[in-house]
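Allow me, if you will, to draw on your knowledge of protein folds for a short while. I am sending you one protein, given as its amino acid sequence and as whole-number tokens for its backbone shapes. Kindly check, if you would, that the fold set down in the tokens agrees with what the sequence suggests. The record follows directly beneath this note:
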Amino acid sequence: MEILNTQFKDLFIINITPFEDSRGQFIKQFSKEIFQLQGLKSDFVESFYSISKRGVIRGMHFQIPPKEHTKLVYVSSGKIIDVVIDLRQQSKTYKQFFYIKLDSTNNRCLYIPDGFAHGFLSLEDNTKVHYMQTSQYDKRYDCGVLYNSFGFPWESIAKEYNIDKFIISERDLSFSDTLEGYF
């Protein structure tokens, strides 16, 4: 497991080296010991996964204090463009976004600290995105930012992958375009 820095404080890309033999691959996407040695939060309390069609945008989701959470995101099947926004007011990268392609073959995870909104664009049908979180989901603290309110080039990236229509939930379309005041 190789933990790589990004230009965002506490946001990391994790490269995983799979074990391969005649049966296929065995992949460990999380190790509490390795995370603790690197000073990363490792007390994950919930795990979810979504299955998305090509063209689905999910996000931009987060929970506010006191139920904020760190997430570990990986893709076991399919491909996404994973996107985060730094909502931490004291951060040097406040209101800036970061994105990365995660897929079932590049063996990467994204470690997202508290204070970031998270979302993604599914590039293939039946894409499975897994999330581990350090706090339980709590509807009272659940928030979001409107997907197209922070300058991310969704349309141009979609065009690169021949996606001409987005599929977005009513809930995600109802989010505010406000980036301030959460953290």
The CA atoms of residues 25 and 101 lie 21 Å apart.
